[in-house]
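Researcher: Structure prediction, please.
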Amino acid sequence: MSVTDKWEEEERREIIELLREQMKVEGRLVGLYENSAKELKSTPVRHLLHMINLDSRKHIDICHAAIEILQGRDVFKEHKEDLLKGLKEHMELEEDSVKRANKLLNSNLISMNKALKALIEKLRDDEKRHHNALKKLSEKPFFQ
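Model: Predicted structure follows.
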């Protein structure tokens, strides 16, 4: 093993350790959000905490995926064609969701209420992000 290989391996271990630490932090946050939500009487605030909780859970999954890639696992080894077909359908549904959210945002009732507008904008922005992530996932570099 060359010196460069040793440095790369050491860096890989450090990155994996940082990702594992982040997973622990996100796990603690999930617990805190769940406990806080139980104590709240406001249903809308509980829903907002639940959304943030889901983001922390998503962050755990992101860290898991990054670790698996760093460890050399072939993420898309099997069933690539089926996966690509499924991604296409998901992308179409996400695109429809963006259009629907934009239609909602054009509603006077929603545009006049700052809280409703912010929620629907968040929904739309998430759907756009999902669509873009699926598009990137379906591109060739992920399937080499």
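Model: Residues 3-39 form the longest helix (37 residues).
Researcher: Thanks, that helps.
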